[in-house]
């Protein structure tokens, strides 16, 4: 009986793969609409690819949903200095107007 209890404990932690019911399909359509409106800056192919791999808005990535929930922002670091270093004067965009005329 102790073996059956330990097996049931293990089965509780495993993800299950089952067919979706009609109610779950309807919820999925709402979620995909929410995803497409929220992440409209991404093209349709990348949205379908992420959905195919199990991405859901607001849930963590990873096998059990334990991972990162927010988007990883691109680094704005310039040069070869250490990550996270901020220098005064380098915060904004560099809009340099180059003149092609010789001096």
TrEMBL record:
Keywords: Methyltransferase, mRNA capping, mRNA processing, Nucleus, S-adenosyl-L-methionine, Transferase
Top-tier EC class: transferase
UniProt source species: Cirrhinus mrigala
Domain G-patch: 42-88
Alphabetical list of InterPro entries matching this protein: G_patch_dom (IPR000467), mRNA_Cap_2O-Ribose_MeTrfase (IPR050851)
Protein name: Cap-specific mRNA (nucleoside-2'-O-)-methyltransferase 1
Function, in words: S-adenosyl-L-methionine-dependent methyltransferase that mediates RNA cap1 2'-O-ribose methylation to the 5'-cap structure of RNAs. Methylates the ribose of the first nucleotide of a m(7)GpppG-capped mRNA to produce m(7)GpppNmp (cap1).
Coarse class of the protein's main subcellular location: nucleus
EC numbers on record: 2.1.1.57
PROSITE patterns: G_PATCH
Keyword hit for Nucleus: yes
GO molecular function, one term: methyltransferase cap1 activity
TM annotation in the entry: none
UniProt-annotated location(s): Nucleus
